[in-house]
Amino acid sequence: MSVWSELSGSVPVMELRNSSSPVLSQLLQSSEYSDFTLVCQGQEFHLHKNVVCVQSPMISAALRGHFKESKTNIVNADQFDPSIMQCVVDFWYKENYRPHRPTTVKEHRRTENKTQPAKSEVKKSKKNSSVPKIEIESYLHHVRVNAAADYYQVTKLKELSRAKLQHLLRSHWHLEMFPTLVQTIHGMTGDEEVYNLLALFAVRHMNELTELPEVAELDWGSEFTLRVLRSCGRNMSLLSSGLRKSHDDCARQAQMLDNIDR
Fold it and tell me: Which residues constitute the signal peptide according to the record (predicted)?
């Protein structure tokens, strides 16, 4: 990959998974041979240690160690929303997840009360009140899945959720929404790469973002600002390396032409 494609394409997108095992999917649907239960806010997922433990070191340790989970074969996941844990479970058995979200404003109005994010996650300014909630929720869903994947140490799901978030940012870029998104996502996940990804998009659209009056009123925090500066530095380094390489190539070609003329 050339330096120019690196600057324009930024982070490579992980191939979004479409493969799944029919056998594992059948096990999940029927709960056949289930040997432990994951309980999330009253919803029960009847799962299989051989499937889950190889993908989640945390759950593996809980079910094997000197913890109550190893005796009861029940793992509690009340800290996450059931819809998020459904995505995690789907990934364990299908290597993919599909977020349920409305695709039209009309559908969104019908389901708005069911898809409201937690109050702690929404810190919108009055000027950003016109930002479509459907767009915000679409991004937040992948970050919440990422947070659960980070908590349960499901590395491949962390990668997939970041890839889905990146794909959404690329395919449905919303300039006015982005500042609020950055502020809302702050602290939602322990995966540092999510924040680096947002910083990268901030750098890519820096000229547009700085023209928004509400940007000056939002507190992105010194940590995210530092990430943006680091991303700028990396891009400048790539650009500088590219210019040096181009200069060296031109010098070599000039030398070759000079030798031919002789």
Answer: none
Query: What are the tens digits of pLDDT across the range 158-193?
Result: 999 999 999 999 988 888 888 888 888 888 999 999
Range 63-70, long-range pairs (CB < 8 A, 24+ positions): 63/36, 69/36
- Residue positions counted in the chain: 262
Residue 21's identity, in one-letter code, is S
Are 115 and 102 in contact, with CB atoms under 8 Å apart?
A: yes
3-state secondary structure of 37: strand
Tokens of 189: 């996940």
What percent of the chain clears pLDDT 90, i.e. is strictly above it? 39
Confidence (pLDDT) at 123: 46
Q: What whole-number distance in Å separates Cα of residue 211 and Cα of residue 175?
A: 10
The CA distance from 11 to 36, in Å, is: 38
Cα(197)–Cα(193) distance, integer angstroms? 6
User: How many beta carbons lie within 10 A of that of residue 112, not counting itself?
Assistant: 13
Q: Which residues pair with 44 in a beta bridge?
A: 39
Which residues fall within 8 angstroms of residue 107, CB to CB, at 6 or more apart?
A: none
| DSSP 3-state of 39 | strand
Find the helix or strand (DSSP H, E) in which 44 lies: strand 43-47
Q: Provide DSSP, 38-63.
A: EEETTEEEEE-HHHHTTT-HHHHHHH
- The per-residue pLDDT of the chain, averaged, comes to 76
